[in-house]
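Moderator note: this is an archived Q&A kept for reference. The question asked for a predicted structure of one protein chain; the sequence and the answer are reproduced below.
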Amino acid sequence: MKDNEKELVDLDEEGNLQENEEKKDIKSNKKDYSFKIIATIIIGGIIILSCIFIGKKYVTMNHIELIVTDNYDEMSQKAGSIIAELVKKNPNAILGLATGSTPIGTYNELIKRYKNKDISFKNITTYNLDEYCDLNQNHPQSYFTYMYEHLFKHIDINLANTHIPKGEGDSELNSKNYENMLNKNKINLQILGVGGNGHIGFNEPGTHFDMGVHLVQLHNKTIRDNARFFENDINKVPKKAITMGIKNILNAETIVLMANGTNKADAIKNVMSGIVDINIPVTALNIHKGKVYIIVDKKAASKL
């Protein structure tokens, strides 16, 4: 009896061991299944995020040179030096010009160099980025007036060689005419500022990079930002403008972008991250085929 009992005990122990192994297999299968579910969720999430951010990508930026300066004056001097060097090398150069508060110091630098007889604008041709719609060109805040007051009247440029989009009249026709002029005249160097929301020219977030000269409805942030030029009254700020498209800007051989102040820090951070996103127009510079100088003060570089 004892031998039989021992045999039964042995068999029972073997049976228990086998049952334990089966339980282990079941648990292992459950773990594998759980892992597959988690992996599927993660992959699905990545696909969903890719769909959400479609059109956004990252690129290498060997063509971009970042120059961080101590302050606005140093930024303006550096940009002025780059532009002046081109003018000296190519007296017939075509310049793309910008308006706003950012380039004023740079224009002052160019005026100083002209008065010192270091450079001449006699045979230079210019094309401005944009102009407000429904604003007489002689209005104090038109970009025609801006360019004349801040640069043209102080140098020897032939006004017949200066071009600014026409803001009055048929906007579609004016846009087409300006586009035709740009197609016939390649810009050697384009000056840019950048808005707090990343706009360049008046190309607001969402503007496709293949757009040429076009009529644009200004975003509320841009209107608020520009109210300082209109007695801080947003009701006096034009709501539409004609602007070079991003395609036109990228056609320039060289681009010089300037930014100063903490309100531009996000825009600079985005462009220097290598991202390309139509919701951040300035990031179009990351796919420019020529040289890009990004010249900023320490405040604009504070998030790098």
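Archived answer notes: The longest strand covers residues 291-297.
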